[in-house]
Amino acid sequence: MNSVVVLALAFLVFFIGYRFYAKTIDTKVIKADPKRATPATMYMDGVEFMPTNRNILFGYQFKSIAGAAPIIGPIIAIQWGWLPALVWILLGTLFIGWVHDYTSTMIALRNDGASFGGLSYRLISPRARIILLSFIYFYLLLIAGAFGNVVVSTAVALKSAPMAWLFLTFGGILAGQMIYRWKKDIILTTVVTVVIAMCGIWFGTIAPSDKILGESLANSRALWTICAFVFCYFAAVLPIWRFALPINYVASYIVFLGLFFGVIGILILHPNFTLPATTSFTIKIGPIWPIMFVTIACGAISGWHSLVSSSGTARQLESEMDARPVGAGVMFVEMLLAVFALIIAGTIYASPAEYGEAIGKGPGGVFAAGVSQFLGVLGLPANIGRSYGSVMMIVLAITIMQLVVRFMKVATGELLGDVSPLFKNAHLATFVASALGAVLVLTGWWQYLWVLFGGANQLMASLALMLVTAWLMSEGKSYAWTFYPMIFMFITTVAALVYTSYTLLSKVLSGAVQGEALIGNTLMGVVGFFLVIAAIILGIEGFKAFGRYRTLRAQPAPAA
Known about the structure:
Radius of gyration: 22 Å
Distance between the termini: 64 Å
Mean pLDDT: 86
Largest sheet: 2 strands, antiparallel
Number of strands: 2
Number of helices: 23
Helix content: over 70%
Order of helices and strands: HHHHHHHHHHHHHEEHHHHHHHHHH
Strand order of the largest sheet: 1-2
Strand content: under 5%
Number of domains: 1
């Protein structure tokens, strides 16, 4: 199969899904109304609720949902063959992914920007609120561990990345100052700050971390773990316009430009896939069902998007008419990023053995090598191309991490705030979240950690679709288009979590792992089983609520 054909299929799915399916749902079922006031305009506080230009919000949404997952997932999943991975990316996005993101935005938009905790209390049951908040907290912990591992591994393996990360941070902070304090033109701000970030990519190649810090510190996982969570601390405690929002905005251009010129490089080289279309049903990390469907944790469907869309984006939309381009449109762009990563993994290696050796060192190196090859066609030197690829990987991961820790801070206050006012303290909640995430980064084996995160992530997606379905039922709207995707995702992800958690704890009980791996495997296995139990209880509560809503809909309308 030629890579250009795969790209053409992806753009066709994008066009059909966004132009027809999403538009029909937006106008005929949800009925977006430009005259309805949004939470951002009603409750503007400059911290969580902030009316934001649609173009800025598009970049924020993309960088907030499109972390390293749409790259790492396909690169790992190609071990089952590129064909099943491609089918899941395209069909998953078309029938589930954008539906999940768009409806997660609209349910919060129509409910005063309420969090999923509050929505589950009202739409499902009071018990569901506590269970869902507990689920979300441990789910977020797995995300922090998985993406923290990506950041640390990339910083250790690609020494040009830390300097570029530093320049990006400075550029993002400057962007926030220029837009919201100095009131500068958005085009001027974008050009200045993106150029600063680009300079960091170049400067990283001439001032890599091992030359500045020495070989020992540059290879220290502990050092980069601390740096990553200090970064996340500031993102969690500072106003969103000061740190998280502008950094994500500037970083989105790094990713957009890399994706754009990378696609041009693919069109010029138009390589054929060299790895097999299919391999075997079961590989080292598990069977194709259910494990592949959670390994590709973004790019097809991702529960993380529901938290960003409901607790972040819905509180910043100026108009309901922006929900489709921001909520649905960005998901289709993320699909293109996943296809780009799949093409990289499937075309740049001469044999499965060569790919196997590369993936053993981590997916960051695979992606950086592919970006370097495709940008090299446009005249970019190989060392800068590798630096660019590493920066794309690290900023995709770190911007997810910062939002995760921010959401964990909020979840801690909602979950334990009634037990003690200390848990409502932003600094304490952020510290606890960072410390737990650091333990997972330093002790968990990344492939199992990734699969466990993927299972929790996709399970979160099914729970978000459950809430949305309950909301649609309560509003008397059509709900089959969210109900059946919810059923598929729930069954698949519970199976994946049970399989992975059992595998991890079996290694612990059999004595197959020792030392740091013993801590990591035990923690991951216990968290995985907790998430399964919580999800089953939530599922029972959800179906009870569905029954109530169906009964109400079946009752005849009162006489006039």
